[in-house]
Amino acid sequence: MADAMNSQMNDHGFEQMPFEDRFGLIVDTEYVRRRNNRMTRLIKEAGYVVSGASVEDIEYNEERKLNRNLIKRLSTCNYIHERQNIILLGPAGSGKTFLANAFGMAASRNRLTVKYFRLPDLLGEMAMAQGEGKYKKLIRQCAGVKLLILDEWLLFPLTPGDAKNLYELVDSRANSGSTIFCSQFDITAWHDKIGETAVADSICDRIVHNAHKIVIGGNDSMRKRKYSGEIQNADIG
Fold this sequence. Notes:
Layout: H1 2-9, H2 19-46, H3 68-74, H4 78-81, E1 85-89, H5 96-109, E2 114-118, H6 119-132, H7 135-144, E3 147-151, H8 160-173, E4 178-183, H9 190-194, H10 197-208, E5 211-215, H11 222-236
Parallel strand pairs: 1-4, 1-5, 2-3, 3-4
Helix pairs in contact: 1-2, 2-5, 6-7, 7-8, 8-10
């Protein structure tokens, strides 16, 4: 506000403006600054791996078979307010991570808290937290964010301990927020990956029946296409 005041004092164009209008501009400047600082902080705390991802940059190639209307609707973040989930399915390199980060960035722009994890990393943190007496704190932190992104969902079969921890995580978020699951495997294969039948039923029941499912088609890796494009551009340069 002091910076805005100094700018006005050094600009003769403000001399004829009423005090109330000048003061209103100073307040508006401070409001915008705080708003932008909060969004910057939320983006940093989210831990995105594709920090530049945005729904505006999603590629709708025919072979990907993406529902543009559904993605546009989800980008409004109403599903978060309604505590619904998103399941992104597709082969390795199909762009699941980019799409999840784009949805996360849309949430950050709406000043909602987001946290991104690779599931193998999170399960490791949970196991470590148990040994350090910080398990409940970690669960509370994951339950507290409005949108949790779990990448590489069930990429590896779970141990009984991991399955139990995953249940605690999913259960803690059932009525508190939304979660995005990125998986290479169809939902029908999740039970075998989790291993524990009763636990698998409980986990899937809390996810699937309240989720928007997006299947990314095509066999061409988006990661490969991006890398090939960078090589070609480098050759041209």
